[in-house]
Amino acid sequence: PPPPPPYFIEQAARGSPTSQHGAAQGRASRSVCGTVAVRCEVIGRRRRRGAGEEGVGCWASWWLGQRGGLVLIEDTIECEGRSLLKTFVAASAHRGESVHVFGFEIPEEEFRAGFDPDVTVRLLYQDGFTDPLRWTGEAGGFCGEEFTALGVSGQLARGPAGPATVVLDSLSWLLLRQPLPAVCQALGRIPMAAASAGLRVTRILALLHGDLHPPGLVETLRSLARAVVGVGPAPEGVGSGGDTPRLASMLQRKETGKVLEKEEYFTILAGFTPKALGEPTGSVPRDEDTDPHSMADPAANLTFNLRLSDTERRARDGVPLPFHFSAQKKSSLLEASASAGKIYYEPDAADDLDEEDPDDDLDV
Amino acid sequence: MAALATGGATPSDGATSFQRKVPASSRLAAIAGTRPSVRHGQLLLSSGLPSLDCVLGGGLAVGTLLLIEEDKYGIYSNLLFKYFLAEGIVCGHNLFVASAKEDPADILKELPAPLFDDVHKNQVDEKETAIKSKQESQESMKIAWRYQNLPKMEVSPAASARFGHYYDVSKTVSPELLKSIKWHRFFLPEEMSLHPEIKTCNMTCGYTRLLQSIQRIIYQEGFDGSYPQKKQKNILRIGIQSLGSVLWGDDICCTDNPEDIFSLTKFLYVLRGLLRMSLSACIITVPAHLIQNKAIMERVTNLSDTVVGLESFIGSERETNPLYKDYQGLIHVHQIPRLNSLICDVSGTKDLAFRLKRKQFTIENKKIINIATLINN
């Protein structure tokens, strides 16, 4: 896969504070990365502490890292997620990918409303809303039963070649009509089937209504997806007056096995560009009462002293151990095997060697 | 002890001068990478992790099934899966890799590379608390200086008669080593596209194909003794990734009332029969945290031989708990097989935690040192 264009990362690292939406020359794409330049809180095993990983905006690092994975946007009745889905669609289109939308829940005009002209040019809509069961017998349109790997890649082949993003609006509609294993297997095989037809599916975006399904199904889809964004209502007082703030909790699973979790407030501006409004504070409650340091240091609150001062430590290091031989003795012990036993005597401090024979004092 | 048990492959550089005196006629052709168990007389394989071998009582017996209940994101269970396969590569066994998610060739490319240094010496260093200064360099050891002239243990994979090797997770296995072994693959989307006529997939469709494939390989390659005189005996290591997940066509992970609640258990029953009658061992990872009906996991545990559950601390509140700061997760040993005996002879410690460093995945008893609270209470 081609390396990501460097200006995305650079813009995000600079962190352009305001959003410049609406400009037609691809500046909107930079604003997508730039406004959301916050640090990712990494939970999980870290292999390298690369400086680049924390500086890059969260959204940008997602896009540039996904390869044929499933991105799930999960919403509930309290807070809709279709507008967030449309921001991803706009970002894909600005990046030059063709976007194939399989729509089942809303009519095409409603889906296309609000997009910039350069986005709508790249949008290829497969209409599954008007006639889902093919009662009128007209050609065109897309039927629910046609959602297999081959059916989808056949529709994709009609579009332009190059990288493509597949958008499902929504996955819940399909899951209510087809069994989950078949749908998941089809989702898994779409990139392969498309590759054999000469296309490259960069990612599959799916909108899921979390409260329509049993929790087991939602958990299974979350474990299959490469990234999950849950959308919920944000509390009062976040963001300025005109926005409708929402809370996004993101979970991303990388190829290296790392898992990133993050929560963030955001709002969506005209032209479907997202704007970050900061992180929720106090999301991880830290108990300040239990002092973690004293728990980790067992020698802290004792009635006797288990610690060593520096002089004591040095004195302890200087004590010779009983099996500490001199270097000469060590080497000779190591080498000698065949010779007769030798006696090594090392006098210690209390010894005084007197060469005189004590028997000389005897007056015999 | 391992050197004794494998029939005395004597390295000429003299790591050990013990040689087992066995008359040549009665000596069994030892299969590489196995050793007989002193407890129940079965041939044991290494699971790839020497510390897991200790927990399981010496190793995994040939003809048994090791089931791993995956942790929440499947990271560490995948690692254990790869260790098992990598051990097969180093010992020269044949591999059979089955998956519904990843291509088996990609799985094999990402196996960890084996370590051939003497890792034991590093462990001795950590335990030396009497000497603070770490001057145990290669040239002069302070305390164990009598051993410094002994040669290193491992030189090359061909000379490794050791049971259980260490792997470096940050490096992948070299392609030459991969080419030296024979392996078979089963990738479910590929099988389904080759035979698309079974389109309305009933639950056991993927499982049936997998069983047929395993049976065919066992028969063709002679692991069940079909070709007794011709070949040198070898072991088949079977690895099945994420069995029971939706990608295999089974819906036990999504609903409480699946369509065919017994398909996974039927599969395990038939698979164990295949394993028992051939020289093979199998590792299966199951996403147990997703299975909705808890009775299914009970049955699955009963139908497997060794069951190990992993619980990682990622995303849970234990991650920031200072008691668990050295560890990445907990290991629960749910079942150990009782082969040729009435009880299983394994240590009774149930508090096991694992930690993953760059070169070592160790399983040890949880060391919770909290003298302060003990004294205050």
UniProtKB/TrEMBL annotation, chain A:
Stretches of Acidic residues bias are at 348-364
CDD domains, A to Z: Elp5 (cd19496)
Write out the biased-composition intervals (Basic and acidic residues): 285-294
For this chain, one GO molecular function annotation is: tRNA binding
Q: Which Pfam families match?
A: Elong_Iki1
- Which GO biological-process labels does this protein carry? tRNA wobble uridine modification
Alphabetically ordered keywords of this record: Cytoplasm, Nucleus, tRNA processing
In which compartments does the protein localize?
A: Cytoplasm; Nucleus
> Where is the segment annotated Disordered?
277-298, 345-364
Cellular component per GO, a single term: nucleoplasm
Q: Which InterPro entries match?
A: Elp5
Q: Which domain of life is it from?
A: Eukaryota
Give the chief site where it resides.
cytoplasm
Pathway it acts in? Answer: tRNA modification; 5-methoxycarbonylmethyl-2-thiouridine-tRNA biosynthesis
Q: Which PANTHER family match?
A: ELONGATOR COMPLEX PROTEIN 5
Q: Which family does it belong to?
A: Belongs to the ELP5 family.
Task: Please give the name of this protein.
Answer: Elongator complex protein 5
- Encoded by which gene? ELP5
